[in-house]
Description:
CATH class of the largest domain: Alpha Beta
Number of helices: 29
Distance between the termini: 47 Å
Amino acid sequence: MSAYEDVLDWIATRPWWQQGALARIASGETIGENDYEEIAKSLFELPPAAPEGGWLASVTAPEAANDEPVRIISVKGVANVNRLAENQELTFAPDGLTVVYGNNGSGKSGYARILQSMVRARHRADILPDVFTESPGEQSGQVTFLIAQTEHVSSLGSAADPALGRVALYDERCGDTYINSEAEISYRPSAVQLLDDLSMVTAGVRRVIDAWKTEKSTPETLPVVTDPSSAATFLRSLTAKTRDDEIATATSCPHDIDRKLIDQVAEVARLRTADPGQEKQKLIRTADALNLAAGHLSGLDRSFGTAVHEKLRGLRESAKAAQEAADAASFTTFGDEPLASIGSPVWKALWQAAEKYSRVVYPNHEFPHSDDGAVCVLCQQSLDGGGAARLKRFHEFVSDTTAQDAESRKEALEAFLTALGRQPVESQPVAVAIAAVEQSEPGFAAKIQVLFDAFRARQTAMISGEQPTGMSVAAEVVTLATQEKDLRDQACLIDAADFTDRLTQAQTEENRLRDQIAMRDGKTLIESERTRLRKLAVLSDKFSETNTRAITDKVGELTKRYVTEEARDRFTRETDRLELERVTFRATKSRQGAGLLHKADFLNARAGARLIDVLSEGEKTALGFAGFLTEVHFDTSKSALVFDDPVCSLDHMRREAVANRIVDLAGERQVIVFTHDIGFTMALRKAAEVGEVPFATRGIERRRKIGPGFTTLKHPWTAQDAAQRVNTLRQEVASLRRDEEGMSEPDYQRATEEIAGHMSQTWERIISQVLAEPLVDYRALEVRVGKLRVIGRVTPDDIKTYDDSYSRISAWAARHDPHPELNYTPPSVQTLTNEIEVLDVWLKSIKKYQGS
């Protein structure tokens, strides 16, 4: 298990805010006092949703991306950064080594600082706007990068993509982080350093929470209630764990409690001045009123109850059956009569009217009078021709038992309904009784009135023949009887001593009501105090959570496990490559109570010997470089590395070692080097060729009268090796070919002179780079005799080719003035093209001599 894996496994068991803080630290963010307070505030809120991949995504680069490397593709969209030109794009080859060359003041550092602000670096450099602009605009810039084959973008001014934390940057100041104020060169792997920094953040948050605990130690104002009382007991027992429903119960009140308090205050005042005898009579009167009300309800229940309804229904059914029988008899008897419906109620009404009229006009005769000479009392016509017989039949029908029975049953039903309709639902004595009870029991009248309304509805339904709604007042009657009995019992027991107890009870009830109202009105105060207690409880919990002991214990454990053994071995390997002799790591003392602080020191030197007194500036830089490469060793993602002028203060012997080491790294990951050193650029190119590592060129230049920050895809002429110069010559001649048409002779001549000058410089670069430089070992300042065989392989034809070409080129160059009589003509584009081919063929053939 690696140190990162060990840290991540352990930190994953810690609170989310420590995980988040560690992720921020790992991204290069500096967490200060203001951040401590923000982190402390977040502990009182619901934990935010973790970022995709979890809080530790930015520090679990290998695991989070399946060990996929992060590669930088470009920096673009730059605006208001130093004085860098806008609308430029600096690209990088995704594999191998990209060398970005720029002279001092070209804008190279501006681009490097943009990367430095987003990737992992031991220090941050401020990105300034153009200091010569009065009102610079908002800074912007984008870094595009690949994770596997997926392109991502991170913008300047926004939180850097956590994945960029896998990319590491080194510059000369990086080495300073390995030297403390006592000139001790210290090194700690970033995984252990993360926990050290996290311990500092945790301690800062702990200080903030401790201050908040002090602020929250004063209790809030609570409602004023009587003591002892249930309200006082509740307030004394209020804790952070008191639930909302418990507060709701303790502060709940009936909707009419304010009116009840007014009544209770009046009751207390009345009892203070009341006579026990009068009080006894009042109780008895109220009991009598309840008895009257209960009796009236029972009477209504009897008058309009189920039994009455059943009787009414029986009368209706009996009258209906009798009428149906009479109708049947009428139909049988008078079926052949001219008119129908004889015997019907209408017909009977007509017959009864006729009978009454007959008694007036024929007072001496029985009805119907049908003797000779009599006329029909209805139509005033003679009864001759069967009329008399018909009247007799009608009379016999009416006198028949069937018709009489129907009539009598109808009369009985009508009499019952009349009596039912006259039955009163309320009466004056009952209303007086209800009013008496209402005085001591508000709401009683409304409750009784609901029952009365129900009885009225039932009465109406029964009279109209509808089905009445079922109801029962048995429960209400029992309740009223119970209340009556209680009042009579109270009246029997009442005396002066009991009256005093009642006054005390009334006062207690008044206090209870006041407490209830105070609790209701003080609910916000109670909730505020509980909030304080909860915050104080959470503060205490979080204060314990911010104890740094666990972190510092882990720091000590990790340091012993990884730094003392593995890092010391890796650091020693790197320093050996840089020829830093007898330098190693030592564990010196504990840090923050548990961690081990290591420092670089001499191996087996005499006591008191200090590195700062012995090492040169270049050796100190080499130590910083070795420390950075040791960190890189622990990075399993093989993400990009960025070096910004890594050989400052290094002598020429160590530059080659650094170049070789950088190229070694470029063989396994993307490496970007920013430099202004031509010699170092050549060393990198040479090492890349030897190691067969892809080598890409980029340039940043300053344009006269405009400013810095213009990007190119190639190095400037002075920084190009022989092969690059041949390619540049081809591009120059191709450009001349495109522009030749329409050019004036002087312009064409000047163009050919410039190209010829570059050709002659290319010949000189070939001779120095391919033939001369291999003969000298600049590290040992000695001639490599074995390389003389390359000179021995150069043939007379090779020399003649060189002499002839160099002579022709020299004649075209601007440094030679053609004699006026020669009538000089500049070479054609094709001639220049041919000459470039001569250069290219000669260069390739000489390189073959080196490999044979």
